[in-house]
Amino acid sequence: MSDGTGEARALTTDVVVIGAGPVGENVADRLIAGGLTAVVVEADLAGGECSYWACMPSKALIRPLTAVHAARAVDGAAQAVTGTVDVERVFARRDEFTSHWDDAGQVEWIEGIGATFLRGRGRISGEREVTVMGADGATTVITATHAVVLATGSTPVTPPIEGLEDVAFWGTREATSAHEAPDRLAVLGGGVAGMELAQAFARLGSTVTVIARSGVLATFPRPAVKTVLDALRDEGITIHENTATTRVDAANDGTVTITLDGADPVVADRLLVSTGRRPATDGLGLEHAGVRLTEKGGLPEVAPTGQVAGTDWLFAVGDVAGKVLLTHQGKYEARATGDFIAARADGSTPDAGPFSRYAATADEVAVPQVVFTDPELAMVGRTVEQARDAGLDVRTVELPIAVAGSSLHADGYTGWAQLVIDTSDDTLAGVTFAGPDVSELLHSATVAIAGQVPLDRLWHAVPAYPTISEVWLRLLEKAGR
User: Fold this and answer.
1) Secondary structure element (H or E) that encloses residue 458, with its range
2) Which span out of 1-10, 336-345, 353-362 was modeled with the highest average pLDDT?
3) Number of domains in the chain
4) Does the residue 217 lie in any domain?
5) Are 268 and 334 part of one and the same domain?
6) CB-CB contact of 40 with 62 (8 Å)
7) Which of 57-66, 120-129, 309-318, 360-369 has the least mean pLDDT?
8) Where is the FAD/NAD(P)-binding domain positioned along the sequence (predicted)?
9) How far apart (Å, rounded) are the C-alpha atoms in residues 296 and 259?
10) CA distance linking residue 90 with residue 380, whole number of Å
11) Distance between CA 283 and CA 18 in Å, rounded?
12) Exposed, middle or buried by CB within 10 Å (0-12, 13-18, 19+), for 256?
């Protein structure tokens, strides 16, 4: 706020957190719990991308559609599903989960933990100093006695396609906040968000075409991806893999024509561009911290404690750190960084070893991730290729998910599972599941990998009957245990 004289307001606090998404909120919470004061700065909505345009609204769109499909997959229940999806009610339910894009509740939570919330665009202006420009042009200069934490998330990457800059296209923000299902939707990008939204809008009534230049869900094992692709194609979604877009043109009637390399043009009423994200480092004043960005605009090395290389007071957590662009991993990093800063401020030398609470190391070995298509794709740890690139000698065990629990779960249940086993100590390096509702199997795999549990010990973790978890027993049997 301005004091009316045009001079900047001045504040002093222990830590400034730039970014009030889930990651920034978590680091502030840990700082406050550790006895420090914190100012949280946010130019957009408190709660961040995840709360309003990503995780929560997309899953709120997906869930009602998946529930209907699940009922139709069970004889007896299928006969009760006699109507069609109420599209308006689906959107209305989604709006409830985003609090109608009102962040008052999130601001109240931040202030409720004892942090100070400041609305405006924060920029580093000196050592341990952040200048915040409010929407009204007033400035606040905040001095941090201990640290500044960047939690600014990531921003979409727009591909350099001829004509795209002249087209009014959707990004994931527009898609997850939409109140219409277009007759024809074209999706550029075969990543997680693109595939989830493609299926969601297909189930809402759109005719959907996906165009993926570099393949679909390319970081996951191909048999798992095929399980998803087969299901989506069975629902009428057209998927062009390894297909480049050469040009995009808008017509006077509002339609968009996408010209492809090696395939017929696609005409759509809406174009969704979902071609990846990059750390949001623009305009942060990092030069005032002596930090030089990489060629791709990312931060230099960020330690497991969150400390940015070359500084002793600047930290980065979540997407902006450039490690793993997943909300749950960012919150995990935030907890470690908040605890580290608080412990260091108390005069101690926190242990930042592999299993320390002050260091986020799961990004190296045990990252869980879920693609919330139907069927789902859930993976933790390394793929075979990633494990071998890391110098591990691995073997695999894979099989269809065909147990009593899966056959009860849905008629015609189709799924796939894989273990990637480190032969040096007979522990798991990676686990993948594909199939309806397999995300609920993932945490057991995450615990097994993070805990380095040998297969001989896993043999004694008896799965309940009849559940889909019985696939663990079948995998261990095939592994020779």
Assistant:
1) helix 455-458
2) 336-345
3) 3
4) yes
5) no
6) no
7) 360-369
8) 14-329
9) 28
10) 31
11) 12
12) buried
Is the pLDDT assigned to residue 3 strictly greater than 50? no
Question: Closest Cα partner for 307 from 291, 288, 287, 326?
Answer: 291
Tell which of 335, 362, 389 closes a domain: 362
Residues 341 and 426 in one domain: no
Q: Is residue 151 part of a domain?
A: yes
Same domain, 345 and 283: yes
Orientation of helix 87-97 relative to helix 55-72, angle to 10°: 140
Residues 473, 477, 480, 481, CA torsion sign: positive
Specify the DSSP element, H or E, that contains 92: helix 87-97
pLDDT tens across 385-434, in order?
999 999 999 999 999 999 999 999 999 999 999 999 999 999 999 999 99
Q: Taking the model in full, what pTM does it have?
A: 0.94
Averaged pLDDT for residues 2-19:
81
Closest of 417, 431, 441, 355 to residue 387, by C-alpha = 431
Residues 426 and 444 in one domain: yes
Which of 328, 362, 396 is the last residue before a domain boundary? 362
Strand partners, 278: 155
Q: Which pair of tokens denotes residue 449?
A: 């990998």
Q: Using alpha carbons only, how large is the chain's radius of gyration in Å?
A: 24
- Distance (Å, whole) CA 39 – CA 114: 9
Phi and psi torsions of 344, nearest 5° = -65, -40
Assess whether 148 and 283 both reside in one domain: yes
Distances (CA, A) of 469 to 63, 395, 432, 473: 22, 22, 13, 8
Amino acid in position 95: D
Confidence category of residue 323, pLDDT binned at 50, 70, 90: very high
Q: What is the pLDDT of residue 481?
A: 65
CATH of the domain at 323: 3.50.50.60
Give the amino acid at 155: T
